[in-house]
Fold these 2 entries.
Entry 1:
Amino acid sequence: KQEVTQIPAALSVPEGENLVLNCSFTDSAIYNLQWFRQDPGKGLTSLLLIQSSQREQTSGRLNASLDKSSGRSTLYIAASQPGDSATYLCAVSGSGGSNYKLTFGKGTLLTVNP
Amino acid sequence: SQTIHQWPATLVQPVGSPLSLECTVEGTSNPNLYWYRQAAGRGLQLLFYSVGIGQISSEVPQNLSASRPQDRQFILSSKKLLLSDSGFYLCAWSGLSNEQFFGPGTRLTVL
């Protein structure tokens, strides 16, 4: 059974700092990995999708890497801003017939202080 | 561009009452559709998955059911709500890339 762990559970940083959020998964046979952002009381916003054959994806100040063999992904946020404050969720989809099914971590609550 | 709608946004229902939550997607055809529940202090749990009209897969046995009467409409139902059904219900869709996109969610409180 796939398990996804996100460390740290919470992180508080001053504005402008670069930061890294970590995600690990127990079964390396994944189809893809997706990073989401969730604001309080809101739905999830997709940030980045990394296919299993890829090593990284970039969007603006965000960069996500994937090391499938070691079961790890990192989300790098450059020059953090107060508007980045949210919960960040990592999710992996299974391979083969279960590639539709996302297994989520419990998230990292990020607070960026002005 | 694609958009996904859910309603109602919030709902307070007594135990034993029925439930109907609706999700619709615009701007895409033949999407895969999903219902998730996010309970306080827990991660997201996949409840149902659909690849087409009338095709529903249940991931977790429970007193909830799902239906897909039209290509871009997904409905979550219950005949009798339990206290444990309280939570934040999220609908999502995906296309060929398998990237999932989520709706704004429905906050359900069962009293």
Note: Residues 73 and 102 of chain B are 14 Å apart (CA to CA).
Entry 2:
Amino acid sequence: QVQLQQSGPGLVKPSQTLSLTCAISGDSVSSNSAAWNWIRQSPSRGLEWLGRTYYRSKWYSDYAVSVKSRITINRDTFKNQFSLQLNSVTPEDTAVYYCVRSLGHFDYWGQGTLVTVSS
Amino acid sequence: QSVLTQPPSASGTPGQKVTISCSGSTSNIGSNAVTWYQRLPGTAPKLLIYNNNQRPSGVPDRFSGSKSGTSASLAISGLQSEDETDYYCAAWDGSLSGWLFGGGTKLTVL
């Protein structure tokens, strides 16, 4: 059974960097078939895919156009986890953030982290 | 504004069949598989349908999916009160190189 455990602060100040980590159990971040995604949900923007990282003989990352200039998704193969960094946040980035595994579809989700951007 | 278009609301009475639509374009639904998710309040979305019409184990066969051209549909038959929640479609967009979600449909069981 795959489990994704998220961690990170729930409050970030405007213009600072939002950082979240997702620890994987039951699968590997270096899997040759899965991809590891970040998705967020807010009342104003609905569900929004932010980006993913995956390994297919080498590492790849894809990012949503809406956040491409501000986002980085990294992975730590030793700790079997991946992380999200979103720079220069504004109140518009307030949302519940999820880490999610995909195998052509999103099947396993983390518990979600409410991140509020406020001074 | 979502590129995949869903009606904001749908409704039906217990036992009835309800259909929720999802409209896209050739770069997403027209060329890639559609998935559907159910989101109960305060919980992560749950996979309902993948590859247009496949149900994961544990999803009742009351839920079914279909796709035609650049549109897809989720049908829920034998509507139950517990089905009252939000539903989202999703598809990969080859032009954007990213996943897209619909805006979500709130289903009310009258």
Note: Chain A touches chain B at residues 37, 41, 46-49, 51, 62-65, 98, 104-107, 109-112 (CB under 8 Å).
